[in-house]
Design goal:
mainly alpha; two-stranded antiparallel ribbon; 2 strands; 69% helix
Length: 139
């Protein structure tokens, strides 16, 4: 059996290969459908997510999942080691959750507020690290 692929190329395939391809395509469609259904259950609007998180701190998990990788990468690029990056990332989200009631939507994305928190924590980390320089006892 011949099938036409994208780009107009034809390929000879057996009925088993065609059936397998159809099953894989069906599995992808089912996965996408389930994903879309779960996304629709969560408000897509950031303002709605923040409002929901203010009323129910467990809803903050959606915001956490949305931004944790970007915040982690931002901090790691400025700190350079995994342990401090993990600590500062956790502190960023802890502070955001703790101060969520002070967040004001000023037309910027919620992520801008998170990055500002992360930036301030990284600046404090560098300042504190500079204070911890060891003096040599060999004089």
């Amino acid at each position: 059996m011949k099938i036409t692929q994208l780009g107009g190329q034809t390929k000879n395939v057996s009925a088993v290969e065609e059936w397998t391809a159809l099953e894989q395509e069906q599995a992808v469609i089912e996965t996408v459908t389930k994903t879309l259904a779960s996304v629709e259950a969560v408000p897509e609007d950031e303002a709605a997510l923040v409002a929901q998180a203010r009323n129910d701190p467990t809803a903050f998990g959606v915001l956490y999942e949305r931004y944790v990788e970007r915040i982690y990468a931002y901090i790691y690029h400025r700190v350079g080691n995994v342990q401090d990056t993990e600590d500062l990332t956790a502190r960023t989200f802890y502070r955001a959750l703790d101060k969520l009631d002070t967040y004001e939507d000023r037309g910027l994305p919620f992520s801008a507020w998170l990055f500002r928190i992360a930036h301030n924590l990284v600046a404090n980390w560098h300042r504190d690290r500079g204070r911890r320089r060891f003096l040599s006892l060999d004089r």
